[in-house]
Amino acid sequence: MFSDLQRQLDEALRKPGPVSNFLYVCEEKSGFERSTIVYGGVFLLFLYLLLGYGANALVLLVGFIYPAYQSVKAIETESKEDDTQWLIYWVSFASLQLFEAITFSLTQFIPFYPILKCLFLLHCMAPIPQNGSTQVYNYVIRPLFLKHSPKIDAALDTAVEVAEQLVEESYRKFERQGNIRCGACGRLFDTARGLSCHRRIHRY
């Protein structure tokens, strides 16, 4: 299994692009294989997370910069496969941030939590078919979504309908009082109604 991951990582590190070009220069200057250079960089990162300051901020940068760059590249390509790959990553990333926000008082007591989080994010963005974000999505997020999405959609539809009714009642009230001197309320009412229609069309 490890040999397969090693092979997939080597193939990913040699794909044409700025990362591969940078690793090629490092490879030529140092005489080390690019996979060894990557492992060394990861080791130094973990050492800093263990001993340095601002570990949480650094982990967020690790989880954001490279995926954001690859996401923009994916948007600019015609293929939809890489779009799906990075969309799954961002859903997993957001889920982790939400989990941390809810359980902050607990995660701060986990030993070496920044290192564990960094390892998890690196696994999530790894250029292999079954990386961490794909597994989190397939085994956690997707089952929960399929189970609860009908109830969530129904609640959203109800909320939109209530908001539409409130806006319409307010609009009629101001209209009766003769206080409408511009089209702002009318545009707000049209927007609420359009949102409701859009949700119904999207669902069906």
Automatic annotation (TrEMBL):
<dbReference type="GO" id="GO:0008270">
    <property type="term" value="F:zinc ion binding"/>
</dbReference>
<dbReference type="InterPro" id="IPR013087">
    <property type="entry name" value="Znf_C2H2_type"/>
</dbReference>
<comment type="similarity">
    <text>Belongs to the DP1 family.</text>
</comment>
<protein>
    <recommendedName>
        <fullName>Receptor expression-enhancing protein</fullName>
    </recommendedName>
</protein>
<dbReference type="GO" id="GO:0016020">
    <property type="term" value="C:membrane"/>
</dbReference>
<keyword id="KW-0863">Zinc-finger</keyword>
<keyword id="KW-0472">Membrane</keyword>
<feature type="transmembrane region" description="Helical">
    <location>
        <begin position="86"/>
        <end position="107"/>
    </location>
</feature>
<keyword id="KW-1133">Transmembrane helix</keyword>
<keyword id="KW-0812">Transmembrane</keyword>
<feature type="transmembrane region" description="Helical">
    <location>
        <begin position="37"/>
        <end position="66"/>
    </location>
</feature>
<dbReference type="Pfam" id="PF03134">
    <property type="entry name" value="TB2_DP1_HVA22"/>
</dbReference>
<keyword id="KW-0479">Metal-binding</keyword>
<keyword id="KW-0862">Zinc</keyword>
<feature type="domain" description="C2H2-type">
    <location>
        <begin position="180"/>
        <end position="204"/>
    </location>
</feature>
<dbReference type="InterPro" id="IPR004345">
    <property type="entry name" value="TB2_DP1_HVA22"/>
</dbReference>
<keyword id="KW-0675">Receptor</keyword>
